[in-house]
Fold this protein.
Amino acid sequence: MGDFTGAGWAFPPGTGPAGGIALADGHRKIEQAMRLILSTYPGERPMRPLWGCTLRDYVFAEANAQTAAAIGRAVRTALDLWEPRAEITDVHVYPDEGVRGLLYIDIQYREVAVNSPRNLVFPFYTIPERDDEEDD
């Protein structure tokens, strides 16, 4: 049985050590695919209009527990649907204590082909409302 994850061009495209096209395989390929899913809004790809994740719906949302829960659901739904090589075991969304509007999306997953637990942390930025004191 071959490697279920396969290999393909790295994203973003680049050159490898020998000067050829850079490739990604194994967990790197899965993580690149997961980042692409999370970075693509449904409707952006004309031939696959449902592909992607609705993360952008939360860009102007307040970085609070309700937003974190909604983001977690959106991420899990998209990855469960579009990345069959990874079994999502948990999605935890939490704020950065030092950067206002920054949420970290910690995705715990199991690489199906090799039964290997892994995690991917994806930063997500909201655009917080300005404080009155910033207007002065």
The domain at 7-130 is CATH 3.10.450.40 (Nuclear Transport Factor 2; Chain: A,). Helices lie at 26-39, 65-82.
